[in-house]
Amino acid sequence: MAGITLRRVxxxxxxxxxxDGVSLDIAxxxxxxxxxxxxxxxxxxxxxxxxxxxxxxxxxWIGNKLVSAAKELVPPERRNLGMVFQNYAVWPHMTVFxxxxxxxxxxxxxxxxxxxxxxxxxxxxxxxxxxxRYPEQLSGGQQQRVxxxxxxxxxxxxxxxxxxxxxxxxxxxxxxxxxxxxLHRRLRMTLVYVTHDQAEAMVLSDRVVIMNQxxxxxxxxxxEIYREPADPFVADFIGLANFVPAVLVEEAGGExxxxxxxxxxxxxxxxxxxxxxxxxxxxxxxxxxxxxxxxLPAGEAEVTGTVTRVTFLGARLDVRxxxxxxxxxxxxxxxxxxxxxxxxxxxxxRAIFFDAKGEIDETEGVA
Length: 367
Description:
Blueprint: E1 4-13, E2 16-26, E3 31-35, H1 42-50, E4 57-62, E5 65-69, E6 72-73, E7 81-84, H2 96-106, H3 111-124, H4 140-152, E8 158-162, H5 170-187, E9 190-195, H6 198-204, E10 207-212, E11 215-220, H7 222-227, H8 232-237, E12 242-252, E13 255-260, E14 269-273, E15 283-288, E16 293-297, E17 304-312, E18 316-323, E19 326-333, E20 343-348, E21 352-355, E22 360-362
Parallel strand pairs: 3-9, 3-10, 7-8, 8-9
Antiparallel strand pairs: 1-2, 1-4, 4-5, 5-6, 10-11, 12-13, 12-15, 13-14, 15-21, 16-20, 17-18, 17-20, 18-19, 21-22
Helix pairs in contact: 2-3, 2-4, 3-4
């Protein structure tokens, strides 16, 4: 097993920087998910780690070995990494056993040792008894397990997965997420996982790496990414968000009051603590998660609005409220008695105030 280090890695295709100065340390045994919109550079970063691409600048290290640099490239087959692709890439003319055995045969592992190792790995991924079947006789989830077994059978230093569950249906994706987590607990292998699925990243990761336009925007635990986003992009990309323009209306004693900059009064107001060495911004954006907005009877809150839409989502309601010249999205319990046209009050105990540069100050409630 080994950690992975990226040092100022850049990959340029013509005039486009697909990866732009990325530095990151992935600890031995850690699960790290690269998450971001299409074209953000996450798959290219994975390919740089795997050795399928050479960096334009910067270095990639696996353990204490330099494997990629502008003038240095250890080929993929000599990096001792396992790779699982989005499209499974299993050989259709080979049985499960032969698919899993293929990388061991390339390494000329003796027959008895090969068979023992292949059967152990097939059992590890839950395919015992299916070793004689061909891929066409397997479900999508089973084919993905074959791909996992083939990557694991060589006992790699790290496992790289490029959107491996995107071709599966929703229930099977959820099941496979937990199977991958169970495998990691048993093997304690370094695991780098590329996905565009927020739920996958939040469930699987020790840390999430958010990328945008080739750059790393934020690295943190799922809790940190969700609760303490670094800028409006991260706040909007992860989960659901309300954004309202805001201005600083008071400042004294190391804190201020941010007020929603909307046409009508009364307006939302938030107490905003300042941080050492940085003045509070004059203008910014209030960010509030829908689940952190509470609906009250209209007479019980200073700011009121009209319900414009109610959508049933099973365990909760997605409620849209026109209030204070802005539309607010609110997550309410499924049993909440709220209908379109109702007048309601809005309150929240937590918001975040972003300044014009994307820095944040966490608020302490809304009056």
